[in-house]
């Protein structure tokens, strides 16, 4: 129960069970993980039997949020909402990656409406979840392929390793199951075995894959070819993978713009969606990522990946406030079926440690 | 966005310029800004608190060195505390064990394990002439084994042939076996990405560790990681006793506060940095540079340090005054060149300055380096004082004389004059920008680093 302990440690007031703080110098010695600090119940392994549709999401989100929830619980059990309590609340939000600015804004709203009142743990959680859900509600928009635009073209972009290729596989599975004819284009011609990775996803999902003739081929050329083929062969949805790139690399961002340009030569309305994958473990740099990708390649929506981990993805709240970009879906695992709609209420409630 | 912490603190401390020591109240105000800076850099909250406490202790009552502003001094105290928390000095990857030395690579999905495995392999092969074997234990991610095989070939090292259907533990055992029989020096074991909370997969990698007894267990983390860094690091460390950390994607613009969090939680040193997708993009970790990066500033700290040691403050202020009037001449330039000589390497000098990002490129285009500067000082020394004060009078015959006198060529003299023109024009521009702090450092402050090194 790392966060709880850490918070407790520093909040002092309610740190009865907290271990003494280990100063960073202690870092120099090989630290001995304390035996008493076993694996918390909240991080128990997933049951072998597969829970249902929402069950999996909840399990994933709940795990990621349990620590936050517990610390909130510790902080607000029948307590007066005074300055100190508000400060603790702010810190709890910061620790969930909401960022300083968003955390402060949310706390300010709390101050205005509830300052000085005696509040119970449940009340504060409910209210906080409501506050966060209200921020998220306007951005929860599933990605709906428009059949009249076929081939509905989706360009998948994002920083390295965030989950572009996997998410293409997941979307392919979902849309195929819904009866669409889906094809992939292996536009990552750079990274070792990126094409082969997408080809595996193609065979898993039954989606044909447009692959480059040889490694290092021009990604824009491949995208162009894939779209022109898709237009001829009656493909309903074309998902184009791209190589991961850091937003601060101008040349690589230009390369993405080139893909946009060549697609538009074939279809002035393409791509019909530019989806940015965002790793839930990402901290405040996500804001810069979204900002630059949006400016450079007109990102139309986000998919937040790896929410099945211990990271809370709280930066999504800050992103919603700052950019209002749609959040289409969340990734909660590595399998084809591990893609879920983004449900703001559920996300917010899980974030503060409440059952959905 | 967040401007350099140094600038903010300078504002706060402006009014107490003349006081001798930092009071508790001054420090508290400054530390609020420090807290913001650290949190925006994704340093985990508990770690931030630890640091702030330490800084407070050191800063309250600290004497303000005369040549440095109080704000800058607090920055330096913060910076030193950060550097210390990051391990103080550069730690090299230790491979001092009987061959074959096993290195186990672990981390979250997509953090850069496979790429880093190949980078380390390349480095060990080329720099340390090791015979390296890499093996992929990733039977989960599509084409993961093939990815490592391709990268191994690029790195010029052997990769363990893939046997379809083999499980990670068996692959690891086979890798160690092959390494022993074929006398490899080092075996790098790349593993599948896994969540710290995935009990089954954590148990799997723990079993691999138990079976192979790696000399190093490296946790690979992304520089963009947020507050969760503490949870991940703690979980991996509890299960696997991490011996070192590799932070990837430092070629991005994330502040990299996760480095601090991870180090604080595990106590393991950060041994390497991934700075790009190519296999040679692997760097040593310098705690002080990452400290600068986390604080969101150029290396103002070293600049202040060195300036305090070497720059004659009065001289610098005279220069600043001169610049203001537009009277900067070649003689001043020469003096500055000499002063730079005293300050040592030019490397990263420009990166030391906060707030000069925009003109940095222009400066880089001026393309100065140390060798050139020495020659330039020689050229100016061959000029008469009249020529130094008024370069316009230097025509063809004078140029020939100066070139002969300094053992250079007329082209070089021309280049110097042109560069001087550019520099004085630039300084006028900077003057308008009101970079007062810059002037304090003199011209040295304006000179670019040797190349396109990042400022950390
Ligand atoms: N746990 C979990 N892992 C995920 C999720 N999405 C992707 N991954 C894993 O993250 C790693 C990287 O995913 P990729 O799809 O290859 O990422 P990418 O953005 O295509 O990477 P590059 O092309 O190298 O930039 C893989 O190991 C995936 O299995 C998710 O929602 N949850
Ligand atoms: N810009 C940059 N990209 C990097 C760096 N290190 C790795 N990458 C990229 O990050 C992505 C993921 O790297 P991998 O090596 O596949 O990551 P991994 O940890 O092996 O991923 P899994 O096996 O899926 O868990 C790839 O696109 C790499 O090219 C780095 O230091 N800088
Ligand atoms: Mg990919
Ligand atoms: Mg890998």
What does this structure look like?
The complex is a heterodimer of chains A (356) and B (456). Chain A has helices spanning 2-11, 53-76, 83-95, 100-114, 121-136, 164-177, 194-205, 219-233, 250-266, 285-297, 315-323, 344-351; strands at residues 79-80, 118-119, 152-157, 182-187, 209-210, 237-242, 273-279, 301-305, 327-331, 339-341. In chain A, the strands form 2 sheets. An 8-stranded mixed beta sheet of chain A has the order 5-4-6-3-7-8-9-10, sandwiched between helices. Chain A has a two-stranded antiparallel sheet with strand order 1-2. Chain A contains 12 helices and 10 strands. Chain A has a domain at 147-343: P-loop containing nucleotide triphosphate hydrolases (Rossmann fold). In chain A, strand 8 (301-305), helix 11 and strand 9 (327-331) form a beta-alpha-beta unit. Chain A is elongated, with a radius of gyration of 22 Å. Chain A has 356 residues and is of the alpha/beta class. Chain B has 456 residues and is α/β, with parallel strands linked by helices. Chain B folds into 3 domains: 5-85, Four Helix Bundle (Hemerythrin (Met), subunit A); 101-285, 3-Layer(aba) Sandwich (Rossmann fold); 300-446, Signal recognition particle, SRP54 subunit, M-domain (434 Repressor (Amino-terminal Domain)). In chain B, helix 4 (70-85) packs across helix 11 (287-295), helix 7 (168-181) packs parallel to helix 8 and helix 9 runs parallel beside helix 10. The chains are: A alpha/beta (356), B alpha/beta (456). Chains A and B meet through helix 1, helix 3, helix 7 and helix 10 of A and helix 2, helix 3, helix 6, helix 9 and helix 10 of B. One guanosine-5'-triphosphate sits between chains B (107, 109-115, 138, 141, 144, 192-193, 220, 248-249, 251, 274-277, 281) and A (160-161, 191, 244, 246).
């Amino acid at each position: 129960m790392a966060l709880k302990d850490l918070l407790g440690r520093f909040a002092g007031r309610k740190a009865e069970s907290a271990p003494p703080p280990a100063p960073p110098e202690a870092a120099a010695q090989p630290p001995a993980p304390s035996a008493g600090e076993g694996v918390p119940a909240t991080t128990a392994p997933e049951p072998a039997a597969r829970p249902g549709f929402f069950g999996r999401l909840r399990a994933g989100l709940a795990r990621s949020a349990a620590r936050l929830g517990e610390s909130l619980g510790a902080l607000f059990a029948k307590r007066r909402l005074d300055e100190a309590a508000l400060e603790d609340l702010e810190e709890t939000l910061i620790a969930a990656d909401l960022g300083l600015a968003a955390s402060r804004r949310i706390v300010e709203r709390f101050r205005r409406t509830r300052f000085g009142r005696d509040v119970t743990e449940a009340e504060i959680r409910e209210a906080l979840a409501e506050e966060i859900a209200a921020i998220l509600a306007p951005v929860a928009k599933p990605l709906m392929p428009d059949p009249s635009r076929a081939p509905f073209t989706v360009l998948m972009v994002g920083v390295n390793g965030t989950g572009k290729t996997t998410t293409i596989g997941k979307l392919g599975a979902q849309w195929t199951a819904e009866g669409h004819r889906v094809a992939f284009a292996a536009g990552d011609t750079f990274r070792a075995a990126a094409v082969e990775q997408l080809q595996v996803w193609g065979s898993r999902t039954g989606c044909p894959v447009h692959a480059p003739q040889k490694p290092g081929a021009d990604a824009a050329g491949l995208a162009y070819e894939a779209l022109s083929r898709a237009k001829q062969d009656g493909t309903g949805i074309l998902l184009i993978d791209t190589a991961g790139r850091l937003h601060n690399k101008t040349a690589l961002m230009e390369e993405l713009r080139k893909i946009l340009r060549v697609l538009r030569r074939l279809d002035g309305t393409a791509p019909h969606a530019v989806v940015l994958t965002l790793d839930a473990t990402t901290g405040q740099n996500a804001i810069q990522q979204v900002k630059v990708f949006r400016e450079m390649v007109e990102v139309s929506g986000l998919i937040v990946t790896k929410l099945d981990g211990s990271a809370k993805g709280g930066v999504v709240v800050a992103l919603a406030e700052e950019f209002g970009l749609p959040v289409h879906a969340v990734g909660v695992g590595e399998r084809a079926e591990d893609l879920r709609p983004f449900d703001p209420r559920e996300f917010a409630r899980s974030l503060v440690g409440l059952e959905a | 966005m967040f401007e350099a912490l140094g600038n903010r603190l300078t504002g706060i401390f402006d009014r107490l310029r003349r006081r001798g020591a930092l009071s508790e109240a001054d420090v508290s105000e400054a530390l609020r800004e420090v807290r913001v800076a650290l949190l925006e850099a994704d340093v985990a909250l508990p770690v931030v608190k630890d640091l702030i406490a330490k800084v407070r202790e050191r800063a309250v009552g600290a004497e303000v060195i005369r040549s440095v502003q109080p704000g800058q001094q607090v920055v330096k105290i913060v910076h030193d505390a950060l550097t210390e928390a990051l391990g103080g000095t550069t730690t090299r990857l230790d491979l001092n064990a009987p061959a074959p030395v096993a290195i186990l690579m672990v981390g979250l999905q997509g953090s850069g394990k496979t790429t880093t495995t190949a980078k380390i392999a390349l480095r060990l092969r080329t720099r340390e002439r090791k015979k390296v074997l890499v093996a992929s234990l990733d039977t989960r991610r599509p084409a993961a084994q093939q990815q490592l095989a391709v990268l191994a070939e690029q790195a010029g090292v052997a990769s363990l042939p893939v046997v379809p259907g083999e499980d990670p533990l068996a692959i690891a055992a086979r890798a160690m076996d092959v390494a022993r029989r074929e006398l490899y020096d080092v075996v790098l074991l790349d593993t599948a990405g896994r969540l710290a909370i995935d009990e089954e997969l954590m148990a799997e990698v723990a079993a691999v560790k138990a079976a192979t007894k790696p000399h190093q267990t490296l946790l690979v983390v992304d520089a963009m990681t947020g507050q969760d860094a503490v949870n991940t690091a703690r979980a991996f460390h509890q299960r696997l006793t991490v011996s070192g950390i590799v932070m990837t994607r430092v070629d991005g613009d994330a502040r990299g506060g996760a480095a601090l969090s991870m180090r604080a939680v595990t106590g393991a040193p950060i041994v390497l940095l991934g700075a790009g997708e190519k296999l040679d993009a692997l760097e040593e970790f310098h705690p002080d540079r990452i400290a600068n990066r986390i604080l969101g500033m150029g290396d103002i700290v070293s600049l202040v340090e060195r300036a305090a040691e070497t720059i004659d403050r009065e001289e610098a202020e005279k220069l600043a005054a001169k610049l203001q009037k537009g009277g900067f001449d070649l003689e001043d330039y020469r003096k500055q060149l000499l002063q730079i000589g005293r300050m040592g390497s030019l490397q990263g000098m420009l990166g030391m300055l906060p707030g000069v990002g925009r003109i940095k490129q222009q400066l880089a285009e001026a393309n100065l380096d140390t060798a050139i500067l020495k020659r330039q000082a020689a050229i100016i020394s061959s000029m008469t004082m009249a020529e130094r004060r008024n370069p316009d009078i230097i025509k063809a015959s004078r140029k020939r004389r100066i070139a002969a006198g300094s053992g250079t060529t007329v082209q070089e003299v021309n280049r110097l004059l042109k560069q001087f023109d550019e520099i004085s024009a630039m300084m006028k521009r900077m003057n308008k920008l009101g970079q007062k702090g810059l002037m304090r450092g003199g011209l040295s402050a304006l000179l670019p680093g040797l190349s396109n090194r990042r400022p950390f």
